[in-house]
Amino acid sequence: MAQVIDGKKWSSVSRQETAQTVELLKAKGVKPGLVVILLGEHPASMSYVRGKDKAATEAGIYSEVIHLPSSTTETALVQLIERLNHDDRFHGILVQLPLPEHINEQSVIAAIAPHKDVDGFHPVNVGALALGISGFVPCTPLGVMKLLEYEGIDVTGKHAVVIGRSNIVGKPMAQLLLSKSATVTICHSKTQNLSAFTRQADLLVAAIGKPCVIKADMIKPQSVVIDVGINRLDGKLCGDVDYASASEVAQFITPVPGGVGPMTIAMLLHNTVLAAQRMAGITTSEVLP
Ligand SMILES: NC(=O)C1=CN([C@@H]2O[C@H](COP(=O)(O)OP(=O)(O)OC[C@H]3O[C@@H](n4cnc5c(N)ncnc54)[C@H](OP(=O)(O)O)[C@@H]3O)[C@@H](O)[C@H]2O)C=CC1
Ligand SMILES: Nc1nc(=O)c2c([nH]1)NC[C@@H]1CN(c3ccc(C(=O)N[C@@H](CCC(=O)O)C(=O)O)cc3)C=[N+]21
């Protein structure tokens, strides 16, 4: 039986570390702040945003949610972001995705000041990650790397197979694994003979968005399986991996819920505090306990 990587436990560890840093920053007169912008009434998005708001407040971060109708224009949204870029209460700005169809996502992301882009989606931060220089790293792939680090899993020289090539998960995930010297393969919907790749994976990251497509016979024995997928099937949450059978084959596996999801929120708080620290010109060594 595979060892379960407990994302809830590790996210709590990470959030406590963040809360300690918040205390030290407050002692220096800096209160980290996060603003989340949500358009429309999509139930899943509303639930994620509530989760982020609650977690931020618990960590001592000042948090505001700006909830706007789905009919909001792109111009109005960009104007709001420009105002928030200059609002000193907020060190992090997050625009919940997906946005309504009449809004160009890339134009909105580009309007966020890169130093407040705690999602790491702005072209400046995407470029920084590609170059391996300092910026903001997208929360979900960063959360996966943090889970591997907490579990003591070294990816150096390992064959990592990432399924999915989105800008928010697959691509940055592959880059982070490459930066840790894994040998990385990226698969997607046009990949021929997917299982030929997945069976070679020492580390398999599934970020597909389709329930239970990764079956036990696609998994290399004793490998590490990270399930990023969040799908709703018959009213229940499930990942992209057929968890019950896969956990018979893998050495490590993340569950859904309780795996990568909670780490995404923990990394959002981490990035917000990092943004506040950088804006105040405080180096990490000054705030570490
Ligand atoms: N746990 C968390 O914190 C988070 C979870 N998620 C979840 O992760 C999943 C992926 O999210 P996201 O990257 O935004 O999704 P996207 O829909 O943007 O990307 C999905 C990717 O999977 C590929 N794909 C689709 N079907 C197949 C298939 N049958 N075989 C191989 N590849 C396939 C697509 O290929 P192509 O490019 O060719 O279309 C695409 O690259 C979703 O379930 C989402 O809800 C997302 C963000 C955070
Ligand atoms: N600008 C932006 N940034 C994001 O980071 C972003 C986004 N938009 N849009 C949507 C996706 C999805 N996402 C999740 C966050 C937490 C959980 C999470 O906490 N999941 C829990 C379950 C939560 C539940 O019960 O619904 C778990 O897996 O255990 C899941 C998914 C962030 N995203």
TrEMBL record:
<keyword id="KW-0368">Histidine biosynthesis</keyword>
<feature type="binding site">
    <location>
        <position position="230"/>
    </location>
    <ligand>
        <name>NADP(+)</name>
    </ligand>
</feature>
<keyword id="KW-0378">Hydrolase</keyword>
<feature type="domain" description="Tetrahydrofolate dehydrogenase/cyclohydrolase catalytic">
    <location>
        <begin position="5"/>
        <end position="119"/>
    </location>
</feature>
<keyword id="KW-0511">Multifunctional enzyme</keyword>
<dbReference type="InterPro" id="IPR036291">
    <property type="entry name" value="NAD(P)-bd_dom_sf"/>
</dbReference>
<dbReference type="InterPro" id="IPR020630">
    <property type="entry name" value="THF_DH/CycHdrlase_cat_dom"/>
</dbReference>
<dbReference type="InterPro" id="IPR020631">
    <property type="entry name" value="THF_DH/CycHdrlase_NAD-bd_dom"/>
</dbReference>
<keyword id="KW-0560">Oxidoreductase</keyword>
<dbReference type="GO" id="GO:0009086">
    <property type="term" value="P:methionine biosynthetic process"/>
</dbReference>
<dbReference type="GO" id="GO:0004488">
    <property type="term" value="F:methylenetetrahydrofolate dehydrogenase (NADP+) activity"/>
</dbReference>
<comment type="function">
    <text>Catalyzes the oxidation of 5,10-methylenetetrahydrofolate to 5,10-methenyltetrahydrofolate and then the hydrolysis of 5,10-methenyltetrahydrofolate to 10-formyltetrahydrofolate.</text>
</comment>
<dbReference type="InterPro" id="IPR046346">
    <property type="entry name" value="Aminoacid_DH-like_N_sf"/>
</dbReference>
<dbReference type="Pfam" id="PF02882">
    <property type="entry name" value="THF_DHG_CYH_C"/>
</dbReference>
<protein>
    <recommendedName>
        <fullName>Bifunctional protein FolD</fullName>
        <ecNumber>1.5.1.5</ecNumber>
        <ecNumber>3.5.4.9</ecNumber>
    </recommendedName>
</protein>
<dbReference type="InterPro" id="IPR000672">
    <property type="entry name" value="THF_DH/CycHdrlase"/>
</dbReference>
<dbReference type="GO" id="GO:0006164">
    <property type="term" value="P:purine nucleotide biosynthetic process"/>
</dbReference>
<dbReference type="GO" id="GO:0004477">
    <property type="term" value="F:methenyltetrahydrofolate cyclohydrolase activity"/>
</dbReference>
<comment type="pathway">
    <text>One-carbon metabolism; tetrahydrofolate interconversion.</text>
</comment>
<dbReference type="GO" id="GO:0035999">
    <property type="term" value="P:tetrahydrofolate interconversion"/>
</dbReference>
<keyword id="KW-0028">Amino-acid biosynthesis</keyword>
<feature type="binding site">
    <location>
        <begin position="164"/>
        <end position="166"/>
    </location>
    <ligand>
        <name>NADP(+)</name>
    </ligand>
</feature>
<dbReference type="Pfam" id="PF00763">
    <property type="entry name" value="THF_DHG_CYH"/>
</dbReference>
<keyword id="KW-0554">One-carbon metabolism</keyword>
<keyword id="KW-0658">Purine biosynthesis</keyword>
<keyword id="KW-0486">Methionine biosynthesis</keyword>
<keyword id="KW-0521">NADP</keyword>
<feature type="domain" description="Tetrahydrofolate dehydrogenase/cyclohydrolase NAD(P)-binding">
    <location>
        <begin position="138"/>
        <end position="278"/>
    </location>
</feature>
<comment type="subunit">
    <text>Homodimer.</text>
</comment>
<comment type="similarity">
    <text>Belongs to the tetrahydrofolate dehydrogenase/cyclohydrolase family.</text>
</comment>
<dbReference type="GO" id="GO:0000105">
    <property type="term" value="P:L-histidine biosynthetic process"/>
</dbReference>
<dbReference type="InterPro" id="IPR020867">
    <property type="entry name" value="THF_DH/CycHdrlase_CS"/>
</dbReference>
<dbReference type="GO" id="GO:0005829">
    <property type="term" value="C:cytosol"/>
</dbReference>
